[in-house]
Amino acid sequence: MWRWVTVNSRSDTIAVFGAGVMGRSITALALGRGVDVVLVDVSDDILQKARTEIAQQMRHGQFMGAFPDGQAAGTLTTTLSGTDAADAGVVIEAITEDASLKARIMAEISGMLPAGIPVITNTSGIPVAELAKSVRRPEDLAGAHFMNPAYLIEMVEVIRGPQTGDETMAAVRSALERLGKKTVVVRDAPGFVTSRLLHPMINEAVRIVAEGVASVESVDRLMHGCLGHPTGPLRTADLIGLDNLADALRLLAERTGNSTFEPCELLLEKVRRGDLGRKTGRGFYDYGKVLS
């Protein structure tokens, strides 16, 4: 559980809850755009590793031209205390894709914020309406599906829940534009648009490999060369995290009632072995080094 304490005002700050893969990437994006960030997690060890990786991501973003020339970086504050984020202008929840855990944390975040502060849940497919049941003011809640790495991919899928207010939508889009993002707003539904299309495609690519139809490399080369997929579905899976992908597929299957979305056995086998993609150094490809 987060520890709540009183701190000074940070009205122009973005607060990010969760220092995992997406929390780090979103934080690097904001800092590179000159926005101060309070990054909250429950583990000192995770926060220490996050600082190292965020610095690496910011260097990569600068090298790739993702940040404005001459832009001074924002200030990063890492903390175990949730109330260090209480005066932020925007709060982004970016914890693991677990509906019950997200609901619990969203309730805690909502309870500490004044009315009118937009709360964004970063989710690849959990309906906003489902999470809205846990917050005090559903009108302040919206969804955003950042793609990884958030500091390089220019577009964000924004999800308007059934109770999301007009002022919240305007504030969320303004905040994302401040981060240099283009936005497309979609209605609330399991998997929204991008996950509903991308995750089953990756699952099918894994099945093709499992059946021996083609190698991992051949699947990705064909999808890139013939269909224009920038990295191929299996490299994308490694970037998402195979555990995150399996969870998202289960969620899609449960929420839609479509059993074909269930993660295939080869994907589950890799998750059981701990081969989760780039973050563990091995997934469908071998990266040689664990990205902690």
TrEMBL record:
Residue ranges occupied by any 3-hydroxyacyl-CoA dehydrogenase C-terminal domain in the UniProt entry: 191-287
Pathway assigned in UniProt: Lipid metabolism; butanoate metabolism
Protein keywords: Oxidoreductase
Domain (3-hydroxyacyl-CoA dehydrogenase NAD binding): residue spans on this chain: 13-188
Keyword presence, Oxidoreductase: yes
InterPro entries for the chain: 3-OHacyl-CoA_DH (IPR022694), 3-OHacyl-CoA_DH_NAD-bd (IPR006176), 3HC_DH_C (IPR006108), 6-PGluconate_DH-like_C_sf (IPR008927), 6PGD_dom2 (IPR013328), NAD(P)-bd_dom_sf (IPR036291)
Similarity section: Belongs to the 3-hydroxyacyl-CoA dehydrogenase family.
Record-given protein name: 3-hydroxyacyl-CoA dehydrogenase family protein
Organism: Streptomyces luomodiensis
Lineage of the species this protein comes from: Bacteria, Bacillati, Actinomycetota, Actinomycetes, Kitasatosporales
